[in-house]
Description:
- Helix 1 (10-21) runs parallel beside helix 8.
- 24% of the residues lie in helices and 29% in strands.
- It starts with a strand and ends with a helix.
- Strand 1, helix 1 and strand 2 (27-31) form a beta-alpha-beta unit.
- The chain is built from eleven helices and 26 strands.
- The chain has helices at 10-21, 55-58, 63-68, 129-135, 152-163, 184-196, 243-247, 290-304, 367-378, 385-389, 395-398; strands at 2-6, 27-31, 71-74, 79-83, 88-91, 95-97, 100-103, 107-109, 123-125, 144-148, 167-172, 200-203, 207-211, 218-221, 226-228, 231-234, 238-240, 256-257, 269-271, 276-280, 283-285, 316-321, 324-330, 337-342, 348-354, 357-364.
Amino acid sequence: MQVIVIGAGQAGSSCVTKLRNLGFEGDITLIGEEPAPPYQRPPLSKKYLLGEMDVERLYLRPESFYGENGIDLRLNERVEAIDPAAKQVVTSADALSYDHLVLTTGSTPHRLPGAIGGALDGVYTVRDLKDVDAMAPEFAEGRRVLIVGGGYIGLEAAAVAASRGLQVTLVEMADRILQRVAAPETSDYFRALHASHGVNIVEGVGLEQLTGEGRVSGAVLSDGSELVLDFVIVGVGIAPATGLAEVAGITLDNGIQTDAQGRTSDPAIWAAGDCASFPYRGTRIRLESVPNAIDQAECVAENIMGAGKDYVAKPWFWSDQYDVKLQIAGLNVGYDRVVSRINDDVSRSFWYYQGETLLAVDAANAPRDYMVGKRLIEGGKSPDPAAIADPETDMKDLMRL
């Protein structure tokens, strides 16, 4: 039996490793477009960019691991097409046959249109090793950077730049930073945090035009203000990488549509990670997180081995900014109120409720709040909001619900 996995990131590496750990004895091929073996992405824009982590420490496993475990790791190789009828994958090097194909193609960052200067030198996105290596020389003290986008990607980039002594301006077209993903309370917390580090956050204002001859040197904002710049970082979200699946006739729905077990509309083709959308509590979601990439890919590996197991997502996420670790449990979609728990000046948590039901928790430098909230959500339990808000409440007592 032959399994091919397209996409040598966290999900792809997790899938092939799980297959071998489960005793799969067939051929396994893992194909990646990048020249580097599978690596962690979260540290790219933080410790790696700051020079605090060597590239080898990014690798999920030593490159030798794949050969030692009978995994044909094909790097720097592009998949050109999938032929579901022939059960073949056509790459830039040759054609490969499969019995099971797993799509772990991840996602791609949105870029600024060329018409507004997005193609100028000095304009960067933060997605892969190549991106970060290219922008690293820009991070010299005193230089001026514009960050476009006030989501977690943009805020993390702002934190690194400010920590290196750069002059940082961040623009967010929406009314507030984190508007799409978090409550106003969480936005307020991070706005104040960045202001305390000298970051100029401009909300409700868009980017009109980047200016420069060949290389970016300035920006015009939608309120008419102008900035003099040395470089720009774009953090305006990502899109699932579905091109191969679409051309192959695989059903799409906010990503590559899968059933509860990770199988696509073609029974021989599976999907996992950022690119896959799956059933969740009566709806369909796509999760962009490392834990989801690992767990979903491992579930697919089990099902290739015949487990017949539904993937049960336990959403959790994190973001590191300065000396603050934000940990998020659950999904806040549909919340109608937020309860704040203030432990001290830097440690607090925000609890999302829909009616009396706890949906999610944002915990900033509050690991105990996070762990308790995560367990309550996974157990389907909802504590009294008044108890959450009371700083005298012992969080351990909430576990006895």
